[in-house]
Write a structure and sequence with these properties.
There is one protein chain. The protein has 18 helices and 13 strands. By secondary structure, it is α/β, with parallel strands linked by helices. The radius of gyration is 22 Å and the shape is globular. Bound molecules: uracil.
Length: 453
């Protein structure tokens, strides 16, 4: 077999067999197939795509290129979790959902297993948000991950070189060869990492809008359809929620600021879009674990876990088990604070019509909250608090955002980015919905069957 023939075949829109894909992908991982041939192959996929069978083989070869994560239950000191859920977000600005959702799911009696990433560019990462707590360290070794699960019901670790190494190598190549934007390549990249983790169900939060890597609903629906099909082929239940990223989620952007906002939610105070998203995802997770549960009962169970303080307590247990002091949950004010704060004021007043999340994410990055490149260091205390979201009215001469930073010189540039990202009008504007659509692979199969009739 020769790589050049396989590239030619893909260029002509033909389908590769499993053996051909094994040859190509394993050859790329072991170095016998060079970057230039793999990038030509990825470019061909961008133009001609892959069919379902091909994509499934491509994804499982990626999944099997490294370690799998499987939690061993049965430690005599721990309770058994009858249902284990893996939640994944495709990433956005102000997305602190996991900090609130993971302890909430645990308080609802669900086990959670999850791989988390670091922030890059304008989007933040869950690893950084948790690690903004002094002392918090994610476990990497198998025994430590099992120990975390037996004390907290949660096993969370960051991506490492040994989990789906093929995706790591391939993503690095796609990033510099303009081949990221291919739905089959994105779907296989995400799903290979999801399928490498053993869980009973996967809950996907697919972000759509100007702060996400998928900007249109149509593209997001198509990606979701592909990921659901991959889930079905791998016999894994998948539920995908398409959610709005045409404005940042919640009000805080930046690592410790977002951590504090998630804690506020668990204490009963939060912005409405973030609140709605976390509650909805938690209700769906419960219904995935028990199909006889009505959405009304699931919603009530979520409310009880929050109002009783059980979810907040679950976060304290998680934080303590990972080496941080739970005092940061009782008093988030103790988290690192930026030296400088600066209000961004609106002179004349108006309703917020739109907020460009990409620009807000970029502003937060320039203040120190994000990484411009993967080895950059970040400032946990830096970020932006948004006092006004789409649909809200900002009075004349009052702030609609506050900048937090330790870098005095970054303030003026960030201020311009924030000003440019906000669009004010005189007429009333309705706030956009945060949940755009919900799809499951069962639902997708039903739809496909109906269409085939
Ligand atoms: N996120 C991933 O993990 N992979 C992609 O290809 C794009 C986004």
């Amino acid at each position: 077999m020769r790589a050049v023939d396989l590239i030619e075949k893909k260029k002509r829109g033909k389908h590769l067999t499993e053996d051909e894909l094994v040859f190509l992908l394993q050859g790329y991982l072991d170095g016998s197939i060079p970057d230039y041939q793999m990038s030509a192959f990825c470019m061909a996929v961008c133009f001609t795509g892959m069919d379902e069978k091909e994509l499934y083989h491509f994804t499982t070869i990626m999944r099997d290129s490294g370690d799998r994560i499987k939690i061993t239950q049965g430690d005599t000191n721990s309770k058994d979790y009858r249902f284990i859920i893996d939640k994944h977000s495709t990433g956005g600005v102000g997305d602190k959902t996991s900090i609130a959702l993971v302890p909430l799911l645990s308080a609802l009696g669900l086990g959670v297993v999850k791989l988390t990433g670091k922030g890059l560019g304008h989007t933040g990462g869950t690893v950084d948000k948790f690690e903004s707590l002094p002392g918090f360290v994610f476990p990497h070794k198998k025994d430590k991950l099992n120990a975390m699960f037996s004390t907290t019901g949660v096993a969370m670790t960051s991506y490492s070189d040994t989990i789906v190494p093929l995706d790591k190598k391939l993503y690095g190549l796609r990033d510099v060869t303009a081949t990221v934007q291919s739905l089959p390549l994105i779907a296989s990249s995400i799903m290979s990492k999801k399928l490498a983790v053993e869980s009973d169900a996967i809950l996907l939060d697919i972000k759509v809008g100007n702060g996400a890597f998928l900007t249109t609903l149509k593209e997001a629906q198509e990606l979701t359809r592909i990921m659901l099909a991959l889930g079905s082929q791998a016999k894994r239940r998948v539920l995908a929620v398409l959610t709005d990223m045409n404005q940042p989620l919640g009000t805080h952007v930046g690592n410790s600021l977002e951590f504090a906002e998630a804690v506020s939610f668990l204490k009963g105070e939060a912005s409405s879009d973030f609140d709605e998203l976390v509650r909805t995802l938690a209700s769906y997770a419960l219904q995935l674990s028990d199909s006889s549960l009505s959405s009304h009962d699931a919603t009530h169970a979520v409310e009880r876990a929050l109002s009783s303080g059980r979810a907040l307590n679950a976060l304290k247990i998680l934080v303590s088990a990972m080496g941080a002091d739970p005092i940061f949950i009782d008093t988030p004010n103790l988290l690192a604070k930026a030296k400088y704060t600066h209000d961004v004021i609106h002179d004349t007043g108006g309703y917020v019509r739109a907020i460009n999340s990409h620009a807000i994410g970029t502003a937060a990055m320039t203040l120190g909250a994000g990484r411009a490149h993967k080895n950059a260091t970040i400032d946990y205390s830096a970020g932006i608090v948004l006092h006004k979201k789409v649909g809200q009215y900002c009075k004349a001469n009052t702030p609609y955002a506050t900048i937090h930073t330790n870098d005095k010189h970054a303030i003026s540039h960030a201020q311009v980015l924030i000003q440019d990202s906000y669009d004010f009008v005189n007429q009333k504007v309705s706030p956009p919905p945060v949940i755009l659509e919900t799809l499951s692979n069962e639902l997708a199969n039903e739809l496909a069957n109906e269409l085939a009739k």
